[in-house]
Design a protein that fits this description.
The chain is α+β, with helices and mostly antiparallel strands and about 280 residues long. The termini are far apart. The longest helix has 25 residues, at about 85-110. Helix 7 (about 150-160) links the parallel strand 4 and strand 5 (about 175-180). It has eleven helices and six strands. The protein has a four-stranded mixed β-sheet with strand order 5-4-3-6. The chain has a two-stranded antiparallel sheet with strand order 1-2. The protein has helices spanning about 1-20, 25-35, 45-50, 60-70, 85-110, 125-130, 150-160, 200-205, 215-225, 250-260, 265-275, and strands spanning about 75, 80, 115-120, 135-145, 175-180, 210. Helix 7 (about 150-160) packs across helix 11.
């Protein structure tokens, strides 16, 4: 009962906070988050990432933006809106985004052969569009339960073989393999470090699938529906199916063969050895 009471109190506090924010305030909150990364947004992106406000119409958002612009609170420039004039930086990042996304897709085409890998997403700066020239490429990988360490060992080995994985000496334009989860533990509320954990919520909402044959993107968003209280919409700028790394007959057969080899007690033993490595 004490736990339930705390949950209800927490919900009510955040609910009251949401009700107390006007649309203009919500827009400023949203832009403030991205301003930390020297980024500005389009009107569509503001709607997607709007903080603590329930689904306004496009007209309502544009009216609120016009009011904020007239008050010199936000700046509108070349189709982008921010707390500062950052449109040039945003436009310059477009080529960077495409280059780094191409590298991520090259890695994803290797991941589709690796046993127990169920999905891969770009995350962090690349997914949020706040990437810099010196940035690495963060990838979030979902694997089968009980085979985290086999998958992780092979992923690291393969991507290093092809010169795609980040190392201590080479970070720029290399894939950073820091984020893993298993299909049975996709609720990110278990790893929040603040209340609310604003960065984690934007992290989840901005995930972009580069290999997702089982459509786990929607599972991740459903498991994290607690974010809906803060950010209602989901990323709409997802890669189209034809641009993602797709499963082929060869990759499916290789994956199935290796997964059959590493089932049962044999697989458990190799899993422990992989963890030690």
């Amino acid at each position: 009962l004490t736990w339930l009471s705390c949950v209800i109190d927490s919900f009510l506090i955040h609910y009251v906070h949401m009700q107390s924010l006007s649309l203009e305030q919500s827009i400023v909150h949203t832009l403030a988050f991205f301003d930390v990364f020297d980024a500005c947004l389009t009107v569509e992106e503001i709607e997607i990432y709007l903080w603590c406000y329930k689904s306004p119409s496009r007209i309502e958002v544009q009216t609120a933006l016009e009011s904020l612009i007239s008050k010199n609170i936000v700046v509108s420039e070349r189709g982008y809106v921010g707390l500062r004039a950052l449109a040039n930086e945003r436009i310059q990042r477009i080529a960077l985004l495409e280059k780094k996304l191409d590298i991520a897709l090259r890695a994803a085409r290797k991941l589709r052969y690796i046993p127990f890998v169920r999905a891969a997403f770009v995350c962090n700066n690349l997914a949020l569009g706040t990437v810099r020239s010196e940035s690495d490429i963060d990838v979030f990988i979902i694997v089968s339960p009980g085979r985290m360490w086999i998958a992780r060992l092979i992923v690291t080995t393969v991507l290093r073989m092809f010169g795609l994985a980040r190392t201590k000496k080479k970070e720029i334009n290399r894939v950073c393999l820091s984020f893993y989860a298993t299909t049975d533990v996709l609720d990110m509320s278990k790893v929040t470090i603040t209340d609310p954990d604003i960065y984690l919520m934007y992290w989840v909402r901005s995930l972009m699938p580069i290999y997702d044959p089982e459509n786990l993107y929607h599972t991740v968003q459903r498991e994290n529906s607690w974010i809906d209280i803060y950010i209602k919409a989901q990323q709409s700028c997802l890669l189209s199916q034809d641009k993602r790394a797709m499963t082929t007959t060869l990759s499916r057969r290789v994956k199935q063969l290796l997964e059959r080899m590493w089932t049962g007690a044999v697989g458990d033993l190799i899993e422990q050895q992989a963890k030690e490595i």
